[in-house]
Amino acid sequence: MRPNFFKILFIFFALIFPSFIYSASIEVDGLLYTISGTSATLTGYSKSKSLNDLIIPGKIDINGKSYSVTTIGERAFRGAELKGSLKIGEGIVVIKDEAFQNTPVTELYLPSTLRSIGYNALDVRYGILHYFECRAVIPPKPLTTGYVFFNDIFKLNTELRVPEQSIESYKNAWGWGFSKTTSLPIVEKIELSNDDILLNIGDSKHLTATIFPSCISNSEIKWSSKNPLIATVDSEGTIVAVSEGDTEIVATINDVSASCHVSVHRIMAEAIILNVNYLDIIVGQREQLTATILPANVTDANVSWHTSDETVAIVNDEGIVTGKSIGEAYITATCDDASTVCYVKVSPELASSIGIIGDSNPNEWFILTQEGVDINMKADCDITISVYTLDGKIVYSKSIDKGKIIKDKLTRNSLKAGLYIVTVQGSNCFESKEFIVR
Fold first, then answer.
1. What letters, b where the CB count within 10 A reaches 16 and e where it falls short, cover 323-337?
2. 346-356 pLDDT tens trace
3. pLDDT (tens digit per residue) in 292-305
4. Which one has a higher pLDDT value, 387 or 358?
């Protein structure tokens, strides 16, 4: 019973306090975090993580949910071989005690969001750091009053770069007081990895921006699209093609910008292949035509269907062909500028049965069989035998001289379903019969 109790207790806390399930460290891109609500604290790093030119993000994603990284924990990187530059992302507010103490950092970038710094948090190895900037307009304060973030020798021999309007504030703020405090470098130009890009709808492409002078952090770049309906760009410079057209992707820092022209094209259909190119059907029969579009990743794979003769065969939007009357027609499938044709032959409807109307015992000259209608007679005078449809269309006609014998057959396959009239007409005789084909 006890294991079930603890399992239920865990589920209870997970439902009531979602952050409970993240009480242990979670690794994201080699860095370790703890979660509280929607915020994350960076607590350390995995042994396999390369710490060269480290960029600490201001936001992370875990299982599809975003968390703001607001704090760097105590001793998170103390003594780590953190070589090269250290760029702390926008959004981070607190750096706790000894977080980066005794690390061999050569370039240090602090964000504009930083508010508090712990004891010896930035006391990096002496004599190695050659570039240091802090973008916070208000000088960050000690996490504990009276405690310093770095030693006095460090402040005597390192140049600090801050926002121009904040130089005097940093000179007089507790814990700062660098012997040399100057303004942040001014962006001279931005170069993009591409000046012109051709994309198909749905494609993506990453743009890289290089800032001059190189000491300025790329995190300050603002990316924008002049027409997001054609192509969008995210905060990392990744372009996504949305619809056909042209637009400009712009990277901006302060008043300096660079742009890349983006052309978005549709992937056009090059060929259409039908499941059949010939249909032999009867009146009333339905058959499915299926079109395969090439290439497979065409932007718009909608197929339009057209018949050359609606009186013979029709086709609907799904490619279903229906025979209407005896004859020939061409069904055309079209996608973009590509098209193909299916030849359709429509034959008479097969009769399922033939029966006479009004007389169950037909004359011997007019006999109904399973195969059709047999005509067998000797003419007593010059006669003409005709078969009409109900609307007067002649489907059979033959003249016989007096004394001649006629033996003929109307096959079931040659007759559509419907009512027929058979007449025998001569100079001194006339007779008619009706029969139905079902």
1. bbbeeebebebbbbe
2. 886 544 444 44
3. 999 998 999 999 99
4. 387
Which are the contacts of 257, defined by CB distance < 8 A and separation ≥ 6? 190, 250, 251
Strand segments, DSSP code E, in 266-303 are 271-274, 278-282, 286-288, 291-294
The tally of CA atoms less than 13 A away on the side-chain side of residue 246 is 4
β-bridge partners, 389:
420
Question: Among residues 341, 353, 313, 379, which one has the least CA distance to residue 437?
Answer: 353
CB atoms within 10 A of CB 438: 9
Residue 14, C-beta contacts closer than 8 angstroms, at least 6 positions apart: 20, 21
* pLDDT over 50 at 168, yes or no: yes
75 has pLDDT over 90? yes
pLDDT digits (tens, 9 = 90+) for 40-65: 999 999 989 999 999 999 999 999 89
Please, which residues have CB within 8 angstroms of residue 154's CB and are 6 or more apart in sequence?
123, 124, 126, 129
Whole-number Cα distances in Å, 61 to 33, 34, 58, 65: 11, 13, 11, 5
Distances (CA, A) of 299 to 5, 231, 233, 242, 268: 56, 15, 21, 11, 7
Torsions phi, psi for 218 (to 5 deg)? -70, -15
Q: Which two tokens stand for residue 322?
A: 């229906």
What's the rounded mean pLDDT across residues 379-400?
85
How many angstroms separate the CA atoms of 222 and 344, rounded? 60
SS3 414: helix
pTM comes to: 0.52
Sheet with 327-335, side-by-side order of all strands? 278-282, 338-347, 327-335, 304-307
- SS3 assignment, position 184: coil
What is the distance between the alpha carbons of residues 359 and 433, in angstroms, rounded to a whole number? 8
Strand partners, 258: 251
Tokens of 321: 């062909």
- Summarised one tens digit per residue, pLDDT across range 176-224 is 989 899 998 888 899 999 999 999 999 999 999 998 887 676 657 899 9
pLDDT at 10: 46
